[in-house]
Amino acid sequence: QVYLVESGGGLVQPGSSLRLSCKASGINFKLFTVDWYRQVPGKERELVATIPASGSSTYADSVKGRFAITRDNVRRTAFLQMDALKPEDTAVYYCHVNTKGGDRWGQGTQVTVPS
User: Fold this and answer.
1) Is residue 110 pLDDT above 90, yes or no?
2) Span 52-67, pLDDT tens digits
3) Distance separating alpha carbons of residues 29 and 71, to the nearest angstrom
4) Which pLDDT score, from 0 to 100, does residue 2 have?
5) Mean pLDDT over residues 62-90, rounded?
6) Contact criterion met (CB below 8 Å) for 83 and 69
7) DSSP the chain
8) In what order do the strands lie in the sheet with 18-25?
9) Could you give the C-alpha distances from 19 to 4, 8, 13, 14, 41, in angstroms and in order?
10) What angle do CA 20, 64, 50 make, to 5 degrees?
11) How far apart are the first and last CA of the chain?
12) How much of the chain, in percent, has pLDDT values that exceed 90?
């Protein structure tokens, strides 16, 4: 069974930083692309950042230069470093992996940046 557990969300002021973590189990983590998505109530889930098993990471235009996705394959954990946070970054952030058995999602972690 594949499990993804996110952590690190919270309530922070504009301009602050947060680092989200996504701990994986049940998969050979180093072989998989990991994505971070976010969702605001009433809107579709939005792809924020992707880190492949090897190669370059990609980012949504709205977070380029402010967010950085990394991974630690030994700890089976992906990270999303979020700097210069804005109120529009407020959302539930989800970790995602696409496995042979289908899409796998974590439970999400709330990030709130008040205006």
Assistant:
1) yes
2) 999 999 999 999 999 9
3) 10
4) 87
5) 98
6) no
7) --EEEEE--EE--TT--EEEEEEEESS-GGGS-EEEEEE-TTS--EEEEEE-SSS--EE-TTTTTTEEEEEETTTTEEEEEE-S--GGG-EEEEEEEEETTEEEE---EEEE---
8) 3-7, 18-25, 77-82, 67-72
9) 16, 6, 14, 15, 22
10) 55
11) 40
12) 97
Instruction: For residue 5, give the nearest of 82, 97, 83 by alpha carbon.
Output: 97
Q: Do residues 52 and 32 touch, judged by C-beta distance below 8 A?
A: no
Confidence tier at 101 by pLDDT (50, 70, 90): confident
